[in-house]
Design brief:
Length: about 350
């Protein structure tokens, strides 16, 4: 089993390296960096919703909080290493506190969705109203609806003048996405992850078996907040400005659509759904005939009606059908080829 895991890890790293090298031949690294950031954000919601059964409308809150935390910290510290760590830690702590209040309060799924949505809208309204000079954190002015530009962007740790932008930022983001993906895989393969899935399937039964359901959901919620915070910090480095639109209702809805279209309960589904729909939105943004929101809404309706499990599960089903349909016919030829190679 250990050898299989090692082989799978090596194979995935090789595939990821090939994809990282080939994608810039098709799409610019500037656009690819944004798609990877959105993929990480979609993966954060896919973790807590698809595997924890927690429908959260507040992932945009953690995303925006990570971006603003990085911007404020970078202005005050002047170097990106510590701000990146704070941008991961603060959303995780905030998510843990919010999650503990909700889960230990034994709120139902509907109330969880409402509270997380309200928290996001509170952030949106508050950040829009911080244009005055009194809204200052250290040397950083929050800027209100104009946002916060002019902060230190990502640099080589310990070398503030060695900036990472363009192609370098793309490669750093890709590596961080791969590391995050494997950490999520490790978490889900661990006993904690298996219990989280059991809680999703039947929370009452898991509780009767002696597991602390509320604590485990709080931890999972915090991990999702940390990943969203990391994606927000990377977005702040990509855009070089953060604005209250990061907390907008449209941003919140898009993250949920990414997960539904990609496939809940899968590891790659939310990531691919986010990157694919974000790139589609980018392409649609180059025309003025149809509103992007109409296209996104139509895609969501079509997937809910015809592919309710999402794109990745549908592809897996087609692949299994092809294998079952034609695998038996190809098996004799494969055996013959194996015999001739041995001879």
């Amino acid at each position: 089993m250990r050898e299989v895991t090692i082989r799978r890890f090596i194979l995935s790293i090789a595939v990821a390296g090939a994809v990282m090298a080939l994608l810039p031949l098709v799409i610019s690294t500037f656009t690819l960096t944004l798609l990877l950031i959105y993929g990480m954000l979609g993966m954060s919601l896919g973790l807590i919703w698809g595997f924890g059964g927690i429908l959260c409308f507040g992932q945009a809150a953690f995303f925006g909080l990570g971006a603003y935390t990085y911007a404020v910290s970078a202005i005050n510290f002047g170097e990106s290493t510590l701000p990146m760590l704070i941008a991961i830690l603060l959303p995780a702590v905030f998510a843990a506190i919010l999650g503990a209040m909700m889960f230990y309060g034994r709120l139902g799924d509907v109330y969880l969705g409402i509270i997380t949505l309200v928290v996001t809208l509170i952030f949106f309204k508050f950040m829009n109203s911080t244009a005055g000079p009194e809204y200052v954190i250290g040397d950083a002015r929050l800027g209100g609806f104009n946002g916060m530009p002019g902060y230190q962007t990502l640099n080589v740790p310990g070398f503030p003048d060695e900036y990472l932008f363009g192609d370098s930022l793309y490669y750093v983001t890709f590596v961080l996405l791969v590391i995050t993906y494997w950490l999520v895989n490790w978490l889900l393969a661990s006993p904690f992850g298996r219990v989280a899935v059991a809680i999703r399937e039947n929370e009452q039964r898991a509780s009767l078996m002696g597991y602390d359901v509320r604590a485990r959901k709080t931890i999972l919620f915090a991990v999702g907040g940390a990943i969203a915070g990391l994606s927000g910090a990377l977005f702040a480095n990509w855009a070089e400005i953060v604005t209250p639109s990061l907390f907008s209702l449209g941003q919140t809805a898009e993250i949920i659509i990414w997960c539904i279209v990609g496939g809940l309960g899968t590891r790659l589904g939310p990531l691919l759904g986010a990157a694919g729909l974000a790139y589609l939105k980018f392409l649609l943004g180059q025309q003025m005939f149809i509103d992007n929101a109409i296209i996104m809404g139509l895609i969501l309706v079509l997937f809910v009606l015809f592919l309710p499990k999402g794109l990745v599960p549908a592809i897996e089903s087609v692949w299994l059908w092809v294998v079952n349909k034609f695998g038996g016919r190809l098996l004799p030829y494969l055996n013959k080829a194996e015999v001739s190679s041995n001879d």
